[in-house]
Write a structure and sequence with these properties.
This protein is mainly α and about 220 residues long. It has one domain. It is about 50% helix and about 10% strand. It contains 9 helices and 4 strands; from the N terminus they run ααβαβααβαβααα. The strands form 2 sheets. It has a two-stranded antiparallel sheet with strand order 1-2. Helix 6 links the parallel strand 3 and strand 4. About 25% of the residues are buried.
Length: about 220
């Protein structure tokens, strides 16, 4: 099925990179006591590593190539794979039997501490280092695992457009929706992501960042 192309709004990559790195480094310094407290709590509450590393799909740097060139290469121009960092919230080997599945509320594989970290999105804080490394931005579509991306690219035609910008720590979809439990929820999030891609700029990013904390708190109160 042919769907209308979605193109990212042009922006200065140098200025955007400077903004993301400076804010991420400042946040890492400011939140360092929080990192230490979370690390101690994880170590005391359950066995296993403090930091959980996982493969995710990020920016597709080749999407501007012509269709003819893509067809000659006979390759899937999905996003670049990178390693994402999170505070561990699940029991060790939680996905050994189930494999990669979408995040769910009240997931039985999640520890009691992990449930609290997820509610406030504190488990995502180590991704500030991903931003410093250049894998992610502060704002953008949330990155997913390769197996889930492959599945969603088949089910949602416009899903591939999400990889035309770097993934983010937060995004327009995250402040407007919570965990997705079905394909329709994912489609709704994709619509928010594409709306962001077409409007992206520094001021829009700042507005989304400022709305993230109250959005998390309001969703927590509503549970």
């Amino acid at each position: 099925m042919n769907v209308p192309e979605v193109f990212p709004r042009e922006r200065s990559e140098v200025a955007n990179r400077a903004l993301n790195v400076s804010l991420s480094v400042a946040s890492l310094m400011l939140l360092s006591p929080v990192f230490v407290l979370i690390a101690i709590a994880i170590r005391m509450s359950s066995r296993g590593p403090i930091i959980y590393a996982q493969t995710r799909v990020g920016l597709d740097r080749r999407w501007r190539e012509t269709l003819a060139l893509r067809e000659r290469r006979h390759e899937d121009l999905g996003g670049q794979v990178f390693t994402i960092f999170k505070f561990r919230t699940m029991r060790v080997d939680a996905e050994r039997l189930s494999g990669a599945v979408w995040a769910q509320e009240n997931d039985p594989r999640v520890t009691s501490l992990g449930r609290m970290l997820r509610k406030f999105r504190l488990d995502e804080l180590p991704q500030l280092w991903n931003i410093v490394r250049g894998d992610m931005n502060l704002v953008g579509p949330r990155p997913e695992r390769p197996s889930i991306v492959a599945r969603l690219r088949e089910d949602i035609d416009e899903y591939r457009f999400r990889h035309r910008v770097k993934p983010g720590l937060t995004g327009l979809a995250q402040i407007n929706q919570h965990y997705d439990s079905c394909l329709d929820d994912v489609r709704a999030k994709v619509r928010w992501d594409l709306a962001y891609i077409e409007r992206q700029d520094a001021w829009f990013d700042i507005r989304i960042m400022l709305r993230t904390i109250p959005a998390v708190l309001l969703k927590f109160r509503g549970q």
